Amino acid sequence: MNLKKILIIDDESEICELIKMTLEMSGFSQIRIANDGLSGLQAAEYWIPDIILLDLMLPQIDGLEVCKRLKGNTKTSDIPIIMLTAKDTPTDIVVGLELGASDYVTKPFNNQVLVARIRNQLRKTSTEQSLNTVTYKSLKVVEDEFRAELNDEPLDLTKTEFDILLLLVKHPGRVYTRGQMISSLKNGEYADITDRSVDVQILNLRRKLGDFASNIETIRGVGYRMQQLSGADR
After folding, report:
1. Domain range for 202
2. Is 70 exceeded by the pLDDT of residue 127?
3. What angle do the packed helices 37-47 and 63-71 form, to 10 degrees?
4. pTM of the entire predicted model
5. What is the pLDDT of residues 67-98, one digit of tens each?
6. Which of 15, 69, 82, 91 stands the most exposed, by the fewest C-beta atoms within 10 Å?
7. Inter-residue long-range contacts of 43-48, CB under 8 Å, 24+ positions, other chains counted
8. CATH no. for residue 150?
9. Are residues 148 and 81 in the same domain?
């Protein structure tokens, strides 16, 4: 019996029951259903499923907005999302993927294909967790592999830039002084780095992050922090 928790957010009761039955036949036992966007968001935050199946056409709050809020909430940002869509246009699929969805399945779907994609995403999540992965919005930092990706595109960072970025994304909203940032860098390799050097590293990091760099805030006279996720982001 697979104890992974699966949340289905879809307003079509027949589709939900079909998916639930398919998953149960495939060994999954913990399945919950939400029939609108708002209840789906609430279930995701309080139940914390291992994966979410998200329909794009939903009452109250549409699927794209649900996806955006899930990825902007630190409690749910790491949960893989598979979009369920009956739309012919690829526009919403592209937008959903850019918002952070992991995969999509077009209705009507093959049951075996859906289960295979769910298992694939769960395997990826397990692997990322074992590699000590930190995510923040569309940024992913894999500590054990010295790898950072923004919108699924690799970032070419120096060791110092990577360590500073990792420190900031691990604790969004926390302000680090330049001295704290220096002392937190690994293995004492940066003993000679100065406050000015930290500023230069931040500057270089911001250039590589492009528009995403606005998430790194300068606290005048103190230091730096990764922007705390606001209610609008959740």
Report:
1. 135-233
2. no
3. 20
4. 0.58
5. 999 988 888 988 999 999 876 667 888 888 88
6. 91
7. 43/7, 43/9, 44/7, 44/9, 44/70, 44/76, 44/79, 45/73, 45/75, 45/76, 47/5, 47/7, 48/5, 48/75, 48/76, 48/79
8. 1.10.10.10
9. no
The answer on 120 and 29 residing in a single domain is yes
Report in angstroms the alpha-carbon separations of 69 from 41, 63, 118, 233, 234.
Answer: 8, 10, 21, 6, 4
Torsion sign (Cα): 77, 78, 84, 88: positive
pLDDT in tens, 143-197: 888 999 998 899 999 988 999 999 999 888 888 888 888 877 755 455 556 678 8
Report yes or no on 130 lying in a domain: no
Give the CATH number for residue 105: 3.40.50.2300
- Could you tell me if 176 and 106 lie in one domain? no
